[in-house]
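4.2 Preliminary Data

To establish feasibility before requesting continued support, the project team ran the inverse folding procedure on a target of 280 residues. The structure was first converted into the token representation described in Section 3, and no sequence information of any kind was made available to the design step. The complete token record follows.
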């Protein structure tokens, strides 16, 4: 049994303004909210030589905003990008469900996979030349992605039982503000919040009868990058400000709260491997 969701969600805003004299204003706003799901669950009774339940969610969510203008007196450009990603995969034997592998060489495997690439990119630039130029950008990226392999019911196997949850998460947030003017102002703010979860769980009411080995494992891999850049070229007054902040409250869990009668080895393992970079 398998459920797969391959997705691509993107919001793009591109605004430009130009004026030989006077005032030019360009504002771009991109908002992307993506919540793809993949669920493979057994609520009744399933019996086979071997049983595999797999749920996979794999894709991209992105918000990109560009704005820019050129002006001889006053130029202002603002770019705002907001991305909210909530990709969920869940493979489970539900409470009241029962799964049996009936041959001596048959395994029971409950496998959840989440692969998410989430990003927000904002760039606002202006050229005011002898006047005032303001180029500002704000990028916000919030990730709430999950992979859950879970047993709340009954599992019987003459050989091995495996619960495996795998999460691979990539998050990128970039904001760039730029101004070229007599008086130039270029603030850039990049904010990223990740709350991703990878869990392999045997619940309190679960009953496992395992003739071989039991593996309950969650693996979590994260690559997070948050950057902000504010650049100004000015004849008189220049103000460039860049703020980048990244917050991670991610979790990796593996637990057995119910009953597991295991003939072979029992391994309960939660692994987390993450890289987080913040620059301004």
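Position-by-position output of the design step:
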């Amino acid at each position: 049994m398998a459920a797969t969701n391959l997705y691509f969600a993107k919001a793009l805003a591109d605004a430009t303004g130009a004026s030989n004299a006077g005032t030019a204003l360009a504002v771009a706003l991109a908002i992307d909210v993506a919540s793809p799901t993949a669920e493979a669950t057994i609520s009744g009774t399933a019996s086979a030589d071997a049983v595999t339940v797999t749920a996979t969610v794999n894709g991209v969510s992105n918000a990109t905003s560009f704005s820019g203008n050129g002006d001889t007196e006053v130029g202002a450009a603002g770019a705002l990008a907001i991305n909210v990603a909530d990709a969920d995969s869940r493979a489970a034997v539900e409470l009241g469900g029962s799964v049996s592998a009936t041959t001596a060489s048959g395994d029971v495997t409950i496998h959840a996979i989440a692969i998410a690439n989430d990003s927000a990119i904002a760039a606002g630039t202006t050229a005011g030349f002898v006047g005032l130029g303001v180029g500002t950008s704000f990028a916000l990226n919030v990730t709430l992605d999950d992979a859950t392999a879970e047993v709340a019911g009954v599992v019987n196997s003459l050989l091995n039982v495996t619960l495996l949850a795998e999460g691979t998460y990539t998050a990128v947030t970039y904001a760039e503000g730029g101004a070229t003017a007599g008086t130039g102002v270029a603030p850039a703010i990049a904010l990223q919040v990740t709350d991703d979860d990878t869990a392999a769980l045997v619940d309190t009411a679960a009953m496992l009868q395992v003739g071989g080995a039991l593996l309950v494992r969650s693996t979590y891999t994260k690559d997070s990058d948050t950057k902000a850049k504010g650049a100004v070229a000015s004849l008189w007054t220049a103000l460039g400000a860049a703020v980048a902040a990244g917050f991670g409250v991610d979790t990796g869990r593996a637990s057995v709260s119910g009953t597991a009668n295991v003939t072979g080895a029992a391994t309960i393992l939660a692994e987390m491997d993450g890289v987080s970079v913040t620059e301004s």
